[in-house]
Every structure is written in structure tokens, then in C-alpha cells.
Amino acid sequence: MTFSILSVCTGNVCRSPVAELSLARALAPFTDVVVQSAGVGALVGRGVPEPAQRLAATLEIDAAQHVARQIDESMIRQASLIVAMAREHRRYVVETLPAAMRRAFTLRELARIAEAVDDRLPAAIAQAGATTAQDGMAAAVALAASLRGTVPPPAAPEEFDVIDPFRQSDEVYQRSFDELIPAAERVAAYLARAARLATSA
């Protein structure tokens, strides 16, 4: 079984590809984990803008080969987890396929939930009977979904989103990265811990 993550933004040239590459690198030790990205209004065929490539390179992430693609229902249907860069993207996903609601979060939303529910993860893994990395990650997603409404929200709803830097200044690109990368790292750590708990059971 493959655990698949779909990262979603608007154009699929700035935020979602960087999140995709960050998550893929962090989860590389686990076999059968696939991370992809797409845009709700993709600039199909376009690459990652130079400012985003430059910032990604500082984290040893090579974004030069990315090519933007448009999201479709089959991608949503096949994804084990969907991480949207903003609430509007999550809304698009759920409106396209309502059944995806429990697998769809904004990236920063899931990072916030993961921080709050980490201590419940061992019990959730055991209750799910997860024995593979993929099953452990799926149990982690289910736990996050079940507790979504119980985690205190941020001070401002905008803190669920990663700001869109496309065609903005270098300062906006930096702000976008400063919002995105810690959230991606937290989500990856949460999924990785779930995988290790499942395989060590």
C-alpha cells in the first residue's frame, strides 16, 4: 500500500512544489510514500520562479525540475493526505470531492493539530492496529481529523494559510518560506513518528 500526499496551492509554482519537495525529502526513509503537488488554477507547464528556487536551495532543496500541473478529482481521490497551502485550496478540494474532507487540511492547520495531539499518537496507532509505516501515517491523519475542532484556533484565521509570494517581492517570498517550511517539517515529523510507532509495535 502506498501512502500518498498531495500538496495544493493556486498556480503550483511556488508554495505547493516547495512543500512537496520538503515533505518528500523528510519522508524519504519510508518506502511507499509518494508526495506530489498540483494547483487549483495551475500555470501548467511553468517552473518554479527564481526567488523560490533560490530560497529552496538554501535548504538544499532543488526545485529546478518542477513542472506545474492542474489538480483533478482523481488526484484528490487517490491521496491519503491533502495539504493545502491556504483555506481556499482546502475548500476547493472538499467541494470537488466531499469525501476528502477528513483527509484535507491546510499545511499550517495540520502542523498545529500535530503539535497538540502528539501525545495521543501511540494510543491511536495501537487502536488502529497499524503495523506498517503507511498504516501508521493513515492513523495519524485519522487522529488529526477526529480532533480538528478541539485544538484551539490561532489568533487570526490567516495563520492557517501560507501567504502567496507569486510575483511579489523577495521579502514576501521569505515570509512565505518562513510560514511554510516549519509547518512542513512539523507535519513530516508527525507522520514519521507515526510510521516508526507502527513498525516498532
TrEMBL record:
SMART domains, alphabetized: LMWPc
GO molecular function: protein tyrosine phosphatase activity
Domain of life: Bacteria
Record Gene3D superfamilies: 3.40.50.2300
Residue ranges annotated for the Phosphotyrosine protein phosphatase I domain, each copy included: 3-193
InterPro entries: LMW_PTPase, Ptyr_pPase, Ptyr_pPase_sf
A matching Pfam family: LMWPc
Family matches, as PANTHER family: LOW MOLECULAR WEIGHT PROTEIN TYROSINE PHOSPHATASE, LOW MOLECULAR WEIGHT PROTEIN-TYROSINE-PHOSPHATASE ETP-RELATED
Protein name, UniProt field: Protein-tyrosine-phosphatase
Organism: Microbacterium testaceum (strain StLB037)
